[in-house]
Amino acid sequence: MPIQYFNRSNPWQFYKKCADASKSVPPGGHILCRVCGDKASGFHYGVFSCEGCKGFFRRTIRQNITYKPCGNMKGCLIMRISRNRCQFCRLNKCVSVGMSHESVRLGRCPKKDRPASNSFFVLPQNQSGAVDIDKQVKTEQMILSIHDAFKLAVKEFDRVAFELSPSEIVKLQSKEDSQNIYVRYLPCIVKCITTFAKEIPQFLDLSLDEQRLLVKGCLLEVAAIHDSTHILHSEEKWEDEKLKFRLDTKHWNEYGLLGEVFHHMYDVVGKLRKYELTDVELSLLCAMVLFCPDREGLKTVKMLENLEMDLSMALKCQLLLNHGNGSMLFVRCIETVVALRTITTKYLDKLLDAHVLLDMTNSIA
């Protein structure tokens, strides 16, 4: 009998709730600072920004300050609690979102730049109705820890992929070829996802049994989200740039079970690539999948539901800052997760054998 991975009659109900909540703007919605995500005080130097980022940009321009280049190749994540850590990346973010010394008009927003109703975001509020700074800081700390965990896991994946992969792209010819790829890389994928999970404080608060349930349940989904960044696919081929293999998409049936799974993931991966999600958005989407409260056998369902709601709001906030129409893109991301969940329900039991489950158990313990 196949394992049941979800404990509700409608396992998509929670995600639908998140998506529905994102379509409307409750009273008290805020315009966010395009630089750090704090509450914007007005339209400054060409964009909506907070007082802190307005002042930072003004000082930098007026004093002609040059900041020491950042050692982080991909740049630092600029948020309210981290915006003062790296002035170089903060200035780059100011410029990238459109701040300019030529846009000297402060506080007045041209009609064409006025935000649509779905561009407002409700920051956490305390009992007096003011922005709850403690809650905001806690959420940003969660985002930073998840982003750091994701970067560490990707670094580990890249290292192992480099060690195991051939120097040139190999075209798979048969079911046996696909099985060899599967056996070679699945333990690596399990290890990397476990690395990601164990770097998140909320994951470590769970029992070992629940940790194993969550990691096992999210394997295919997290792998697909991560793989979308380095999978090239067209009508003719499915090519993994990191793992160095290629499949002929016109002959999925020749590759056995793995070909069948890739065939069903084809559209999902294509959509994720089209969304052009940032690293922090990918990390939050992976965390939402990891902490799914619908996995069968979980005991801390309420805690996971609250965490999932925090993650969904954090993701929506990032999408809003980075893509403008964050509400619609958030809904599309949720729909993609639902599609991935359908694939997991159908194939996860077939893909995981006792050897892989043993490796997973050992890596979490």
Helix/strand layout:
Elements: H1 13-23, E1 42-44, E2 47-49, H2 51-62, H3 87-96, H4 133-164, E3 170-171, H5 175-198, H6 201-204, H7 208-227, E4 231-233, E5 237-240, E6 245-248, H8 256-275, H9 279-290, H10 301-323, H11 326-351, H12 354-364
Parallel strand pairs: 3-6
Antiparallel strand pairs: 1-2, 4-5, 5-6
Q: Concise description?
A:
With 365 residues, the chain is mainly alpha-helical. It has helices at 13-23, 51-62, 87-96, 133-164, 175-198, 201-204, 208-227, 256-275, 279-290, 301-323, 326-351, 354-364, and strands at 42-44, 47-49, 170-171, 231-233, 237-240, 245-248. The protein folds into 2 domains: 33-106, Erythroid Transcription Factor GATA-1, Chain A (2-Layer Sandwich), CATH 3.30.50.10; 135-364, Orthogonal Bundle (Retinoid X Receptor), CATH 1.10.565.10.
Features:
single chain, 365 residues, mainly alpha, Erythroid Transcription Factor GATA-1, Chain A, Retinoid X Receptor, 2 domains, 4-stranded mixed sheet, two-stranded antiparallel sheet, 12 helices, disordered N terminus, DNA-binding, zinc ion binding
What does this structure look like?
The chain has 365 residues and is mainly alpha-helical. The chain is built from 12 helices and 6 strands. The protein has helices spanning 13-23, 51-62, 87-96, 133-164, 175-198, 201-204, 208-227, 256-275, 279-290, 301-323, 326-351, 354-364, and strands at 42-44, 47-49, 170-171, 231-233, 237-240, 245-248. The strands form 2 sheets. The chain has a 4-stranded mixed beta sheet with strand order 3-6-5-4, covered by helices on one side. A hairpin with a 4-residue loop joins strand 5 and strand 6. It is globular and about 65 Å long. Residues 1-12 and 21-27 have low confidence and may be disordered. Belongs to the nuclear hormone receptor family. NR1 subfamily.
